[in-house]
Amino acid sequence: QVQLVQSGAEVKKPGSSVKVSCKASGGTFSTYTISWVRQAPGQGLEWMGSFIPLLDIAKYAQKFQGRVTLTADKSTSTAYMELSSLRSEDTAVYSCARHDTGMDAFDIWGPGTMVTVSS
Amino acid sequence: QSVLTQPPSASGTPGQRVTISCSGSSSNIGSNAVDWYQQLPGTAPKLLIFGNNQRPSGVPDRFSGSKSGTSASLAISGLQSEDEGDYYCAAWDDSLNAYVFGTGTKVTVL
Known about the structure:
The complex is a heterodimer.
Chain A: E1 3-6, E2 10-12, E3 18-25, E4 33-39, E5 45-52, E6 57-60, E7 68-73, E8 78-83, E9 92-100, E10 105-109, E11 113-117
Parallel strand pairs in A: 2-11
Antiparallel strand pairs in A: 1-3, 3-8, 4-5, 4-9, 5-6, 7-8, 9-10, 9-11
Chain B: E1 9-12, E2 18-23, E3 34-39, E4 46-49, E5 63-68, E6 71-76, E7 85-93, E8 98-101, E9 105-109
Parallel strand pairs in B: 1-9
Antiparallel strand pairs in B: 2-6, 3-4, 3-7, 5-6, 7-8, 7-9
C-alpha cells in the first residue's frame, strides 16, 4: 500500500521560504504524479501544482507561478514543495497527494504539514 | 474564489438521503470529469467519487455521483453519523489550466 509521509510543522517569517517534503513508501514512485494542495485555516482546498518525477516536469497553478517550486528525488522517493516570499496569507496546511492516472484523481493523500507565517 | 460553487451546508437525520450540488461552467464541469472528496474533521481529504460517478474500491455504495451539463451532484443515502464532515467537488478547468475545487459543503447529521 502506498503511503505518503510529510515533514513536520514549520513556523516562518514573512519574506522567507519553506520547503515541505513528501516521502512515498510502497509502489513505484517514479511513475506517480504528485500534486500539492493547500488549505488555509477554516477554508477550502486549493491546488498548487503537480510534479511528474518520471519526466521531471512540473505544472503550476497560475496563482503560485514564480513563487512555488516542485521537485522530487527519485532515489529517496521524496517529493518537495518550496514556497518563497511567504506572507501571512500563506499560513495553511500543505498536503501532497498522488494523482492516479487510471482514476485521474487524487487517490492517496499525505497527512498535511502546517506552515505558519508570522513575524 | 473558487469557480465551482457548492452550498455551504447540508444536513439530514440518520438514514435520510442528502444531495450536494456543484455548479461550474463549460471550461470545467462542462468538459471534464468531476471528482468528489470527503474530509472528516481533522483528517486529510479522501477520494469519494472519480470520473463523475465511479467509486474507488472501499467506498460504500451509499455514495453516488452524477453530472449534467455544467453541474454535478453527490448523493449520500442512508446517512450515518460518521458521514459528518466537509465535501468538495473538483474538476480540471481548461481555461485556468488548473485543477479546481468547489467551495465545500459541510454535512451535519442531526
